[in-house]
Amino acid sequence: MEALGILSTLPALKDLVLRFRANDGPFRPDTQANDYPPEVVLQFLILRSLGENTQPSPLKSLTINNILPLPHPYLSSESMIGLLSTLNHFAVNTTSHCASFPMTDPRIVWPSDSHLFQKEALSSSLVSLQLHHACVRSADVVVPISEIQLPSLAYLSLQRTYFSDQSELELFISRHGGTLVELKLFLCPMALSTQFTSGLRPESFRRWAQVWEQLNSDLTALKDLVVSERHDSNGVRDVRFGRYIDNCYRCNVVDLGVVDMAADDAALQRFLENVESRSQ
Amino acid sequence: MTISFPPELLGAIVAEVHSQSDLLRLRAANSTLNALATPLAFRSIQFANTDKSLERFIRLANYPKFSGLIHEVVYQYEEADRSTCIIFIVVSRLTLVIARIHSL
After folding, report:
1. Cβ atoms < 10 Å from Cβ of A81
2. Model ipTM?
3. Which positions ≥6 away from B6 have C-beta within 8 Å?
4. Could you report the per-residue pLDDT of A67-94, keeping only the tens digit for each?
5. Cα–Cα distances in Å, from A244 out to A18, A196, A236, A257, A267?
6. Model's pTM, two decimal places?
7. A193, A205 Cβ separation under 8 angstroms
8. Would the CB atoms of B61 and A6 count as touching at under 8 Å?
9. Residue from B45, B77, B79 whose CB has the most chain A CBs within 10 Å, to mutate
10. Looking at chain A, which terminus has fewer C-beta neighbours within 10 angstroms, N or C?
11. Which member of A6, A11, A12 has the closest CB to residue B58?
């Protein structure tokens, strides 16, 4: 932890990258009760050390990779918010769930008032925001997006973050339509239902065609649009992806049929053409 | 051999070298290349949860000639055997406890 204490003494430091795991594979099975994976314990210790830092932040960019999305008191501390207050670029890439911490399982309802970071953590200076998940999760797991307005946000990248009829994610993107110049969506599905108990397919649900038409109308500054349904941001193919899933917890792929898919494709094509015409 | 190249051209060539080990080798070639490669060699520094890596990082960060060149710090978790991890965690916790006692 001494190493992290030194960070504030580096006069030219601008970028900090934290990679809490070697990869997003399964955690090693626990052999004893209360035997937490060492990488998670280190994650806690490192976040705690950063949260205890009282020096002014030199950081412009913070990338947190392979983080287990588990709220931690130090993430909402004044020092941590101070550390994040100068950022231009903030990237949070969550890892797969860990059985030692059941709430990190995306198949379990995430408490609505729990977020990895509070809204104050996202500085108004942010120009670039990346929220990537290793498995399908809500954007709210990382930050309460319904409460956030970033006046300078120009670059937004999302991965395995689900949209839905009730989701605030679409509104969040639309709300930044005047400043966003680049939007990247990797393997983001539409969840037909966000009800944990319901096993039935709802009669009405949001279609991608509606999303694309709305965003095409709202994102007036957009010059670069990436929508990937096959590969993640690292170019790794994900054969399990489905454009529609029955439920944000179970994530079973739903095939709506050729007509609906063609309507989605046509709306996306119009959106892409509009964006491309703006970039020329 | 480098004498025949203007510094701007040498600088442009060195800027294309991205491997830290190659940059460190360039530093050792002569004083001109040392001056060009040093800021790039120490621009991004990585450390891991091993004693050797931490010692190297702390030594570098405490050396004024290099600490001012560090723009990016990368922490990379490294898988270690269980006993090494436990020792590291215990030492880290003790460090925190000692720091807390000092702050009282």
Report:
1. 18
2. 0.88
3. none
4. 999 988 888 888 889 889 999 999 999 9
5. 33, 17, 20, 11, 16
6. 0.89
7. yes
8. yes
9. B77
10. C
11. A6
